[in-house]
Amino acid sequence: MKINKELLKGSTVIMILTMLNRNPMYGYEMIKEMERQSGGIFSLKEGTLYPILHSLEAEDWVEAYWSEHDGRRRKYYRITDKGGGQLQDKKQEWIVFRTALDRMIGEGGV
């Protein structure tokens, strides 16, 4: 099933912060990991991912650094302490949103 881009738009920051909270990653790795973890439902293009990462850097939620592995130099991203706090806030916000939406569409048992 193809997911409307507007639904994905509101969820990308929490997905990116969650992945980076687990491990630092480079951009293409994030794209592939997001696809893998979502069973192919979530797929970002580089032209979508990198502007989000740059805005997260500007907010000091993530930081970039260069690292070389197997002779390849890559720009990695890791979550900052400030980003970790934002991730916790966004998880709480998501729980409230999801619960309210489930109630509205009749999936919450209420």
Q: What does this protein look like?
A:
The chain has 110 residues and is α+β, with helices and mostly antiparallel strands. Strands 1-3-2 form a 3-stranded antiparallel beta sheet. The longest helix is centred in the C-terminal third of the chain and has 25 residues, at 81-105. Helices cover 59% and strands 16% of the residues. It holds the Pfam family PadR. Residues 16-88 form the Transcription regulator PadR N-terminal domain. One of its GO terms (molecular function) is DNA binding. It comes from Paenibacillus nasutitermitis.
- For the record, give the distance between the C-alpha atoms at the N and C termini, rounded to a whole number: 27 Å
The backbone outline, from C-alpha atoms, is globular
Average pLDDT works out at 92
Task: Report the sheet-strand fraction.
Answer: 15-25%
The gist of it:
The protein is an alpha+beta fold. The chain has helices at residues 5-9, 12-22, 27-37, 46-58, 81-105, and strands at residues 25-26, 62-69, 72-79.
SSE topology:
Blueprint: H1 5-9, H2 12-22, E1 25-26, H3 27-37, H4 46-58, E2 62-69, E3 72-79, H5 81-105
Antiparallel strand pairs: 1-3, 2-3
List keywords for this structure.
110 residues, alpha+beta, three-stranded antiparallel sheet, 5 helices, 3 strands, 16% strand, DNA binding, DNA-binding protein YwzG, DNA-binding
